[in-house]
């Protein structure tokens, strides 16, 4: 029996609702599709699911632009479908986490519409970040901030037929940033928390958790000046301060990781404590320094933060070893469990990243014009990385399809792409659509069984994004019950992990650990884990009893092949 709260060691499976499973045949996943496949997830052995946004939204950023935090978008069903899904999940022993998007709303949210209808200086405007422009006629934006999706972070509105104030949007123009200095904003978001807690959700994944508070006076940021080139009015090359500058932003960003943000989480922590049953918050905060990130998970704030340091390490023993060591150390100082994540709906799927000539690169999307990954090599490495991740103490996050070894769709035609980042950078940033392609369930069906034919006429429309032909090899029904498949590797790993309570275990480097030679090796409980990222086979200790190997032939003759990993006891 676990002695710590469930989330301290949970394996949490991310569902991207529009691409998980489609029950009503409209080509878009839905909550009934989630509900129908909960047994699949329970049998896989995950402990919880996290659902990306399914709230009412114009879908300008695939639902991360929320128009009503208390309603389900008709694309996905209704509140009734949500409640049915939730109670079935709980019945199967699965916890349910929902996404909360507090940094910005949709421009179609009632509040923003009200703000547009009221004059500068009104209380309706004060819920957002409206400012007068610079220059004589206010024709220059209030400061030099750039949107994470490319282009300016400010858009000017038209008032009574003439150009008026500007509003801030760190993301798309259709995602105006809220003003977290406004008490009404704080009260409203706590009420949204309660709305979902009352329905029974077990926690929230907090979107852009490091972004809500901005530096007083909204100062220009020199960090941009260095990176921005070309005409300010055009969409310049993508600016991503978070991923481009490591480990610390210099000068620090005035819109990310401000100290004031922690007060918000202290009050949310108090809200959660009013409820029974270890409810939790997990921060999506792209904060590079593990010590800064650890601040989000102090005892009176959030329970977890995604450990992107591990994700960003790529397939590189030294970087993985450093990320593991630093993350464990940083979290130990605050007493919080460490989390591990390899992929999500914002990143190129890791089997594809690991198949690039430099498997530590971190493209934000891949197109047909770009270098194409070696699919087999990337998959071999991804399977080995899964064995590393699932043996580490703490909590692990999986992204839907990861258990199938699903690759990125790297040749997706521009005509199908929907990610706002793609458009705001004129396609320079390839966009995140390639990792959001609908899952293949049944290889022989149209759309690989993504949509169920339960519509009246038995017809379904094509999935909202086309799937590459290779998805036929990764379908659930192709891998299910097949020894050696990625699905069965994950299932075995999750069961061994549970049997030995590895999530609650202790990490210590094993004698074989030698990252400079490409070897990552550690002990946890009775298991030793070794991953070989090098190019030569590695000798396993005599008497090693193989528990699980990432490739059937990888641990034969007492040797561990390159690009593979094993769990063993001796
Ligand atoms: O992402 C926040 C964020 O910082 C991302 O832009 C990230 O840096 C990038 O996608 C990595 O390639 C969250 C959501 O996960 C993302 O889907 C949303 O678009 C974004 O917030 C805005 O809500």
From TrEMBL:
Residues 223-253 are annotated as: Disordered. Belongs to the glycosyl hydrolase 13 family. Residues 14-436 form the Glycosyl hydrolase family 13 catalytic domain. This is Alpha-amylase. The keyword Thylakoid does not apply. One of its GO terms (biological process) is oligosaccharide catabolic process. GO terms for molecular function: alpha-amylase activity. Keywords: Glycoprotein. It comes from Arthrobacter psychrolactophilus. The keyword Lyase does not apply. SUPFAM superfamilies: (Trans)glycosidases (SSF51445).
